[in-house]
Amino acid sequence: EPTVRTELMEQIPPIAIFLQESRPHFPTAFFEYLMPIVVRYLTDVNNQVRKAGQEALLILLEQDLVAQSDIENKVCPILLDLSAPDSDDEYKVEAVNIICKMASMLSRTTVEHMLLPRFCELCSDGKLFQVRKICAANFGDICNAVGQEATERLLIPKFFELCSDSVWGMRKACAECFMAVSYTTSPEVRRSKLSPLFISLISDTCRWVRQAAFQSLGPFISTFANPSSAGLYIREDGTLSIRPPTQDVNSNSRQLSNSSTLMSS
């Protein structure tokens, strides 16, 4: 019964945590019994079971309970099969979604060598706009996961494609994550490539795209600032935040009340 398998999946993370805490007594139980079940349920015929399996996998990755070897030898191959060009549409959409979500939890080497080539292919998927939209919505996270060199060499060309996609929802998603993409690139790429691209989004024919671009304008401009002096930084959740400059943190209360100090902050 699918409901039984779904309930089972929901119990996997707490069981895995218990086994991790009691590892001397159960040294191989998780890897021999639980991990194969999670991997198998990613391809279950029932979508609710698959969804429960995906959620369980993400929790296990977040808790750092899955060994690097299992990620590379068991999890990634399944996701690459499910996201292949000839894969079933529903499976492909689910696979690209979980690839994007797990990228921030894996090592940069694993993402770059195993998942990045497939992600670049999926950005150009001409069959399913849902696949391209998931890629566009999570583009900033992928850039952050692989770093500046891979972003500029492989991802920026794909970002240009998505920013000129015929579906306006794709362009809107690109506008919304523009700051996160810009933050991962060098100042030169920001100035010479991303700035003209951003202007094209602000001038888009669709008002929803223009609105999203204008909402991202301030955050995009902030990526040109020097973080050490401006105090701007990106949180783990991808949002922009402000850290008070060092000189203000060390100032006493009288200096902080001074208007010029407040202005510099």
Describe this structure in words.
The structure is a single chain. This protein is mainly α and 265 residues long. Mean pLDDT is 85; it is low at 247-265. The protein has a two-stranded antiparallel sheet with strand order 1-2. A hairpin with a 5-residue loop joins strand 1 (232-234) and strand 2. The longest helix has 20 residues, at 2-21. The protein has a domain at 114-224: Leucine-rich Repeat Variant. It has 17 helices and two strands. Helix 5 (89-102) packs parallel to helix 7 and helix 10 runs parallel beside helix 13 (207-222). The protein is 73% helix and 2% strand. GO terms for molecular function: protein phosphatase regulator activity. Pfam families: HEAT.
Level of helix content? over 70%
Helix/strand-derived class?
A: mainly alpha
Distance between the ends? 61 Å
Number of strands: 2
Please state the average pLDDT score. Answer: 85
The name of the CATH architecture of the domain at 114-224 is Alpha Horseshoe
CATH class of the domain at 114-224 equals Mainly Alpha
Q: Low-confidence stretches at least 5 residues in length (pLDDT < 50)?
A: 247-265
What integer value in Å does the Rg equal?
A: 22 Å
Across the major sheet, the strand order is: 1-2
**Total helical elements:** 17
Which fold name fills CATH's third level, the topology of the domain at 114-224?
Leucine-rich Repeat Variant
Order of helices and strands: HHHHHHHHHHHHHHEEHHH
CATH 4th-level superfamily of the domain at 114-224: Leucine-rich Repeat Variant
Beta-strand residue percentage: under 5%
Q: What best-fitting shape do the alpha-carbon axes yield? A: globular
Largest sheet properties? 2 strands, antiparallel
Q: Give the assembly state of these chains.
A: single chain
